[in-house]
Fold this protein.
Amino acid sequence: VQLQASGGGLVQAGGSLRLSCAASGVAFSTYVMGWFRQAPGKEREFVASISRTLGTTYYADSVEGRFTISRENAKNTVYLLMNSLKPEDTAVYYCAAAGGTAQTLSTAARIASWGQGTLVTVSS
């Protein structure tokens, strides 16, 4: 599966952005989907994940209550709605497709494909 992320940009603290990740190839609905991010000088970290069809979601503590992950299997797309953005949310955001479960994706296990990344910059 090939992934194309979009929607990043510059936003003021407290603002919102919605990221999209469009998948091409086969069988999008057979993949657990997730988002990770990597800030300058830091390791890539888990942000959110969603199961194949039931919509079960997992979030990093740092984004719980502010970010919402969703997916539309008919459109082969996963979204990340980011509200109440903070400067520490500044990072390159990557989408990922994986086997396993939404919970195991949080450990970056069984990732089949990564998107190319989209930059989110939150100004204070």
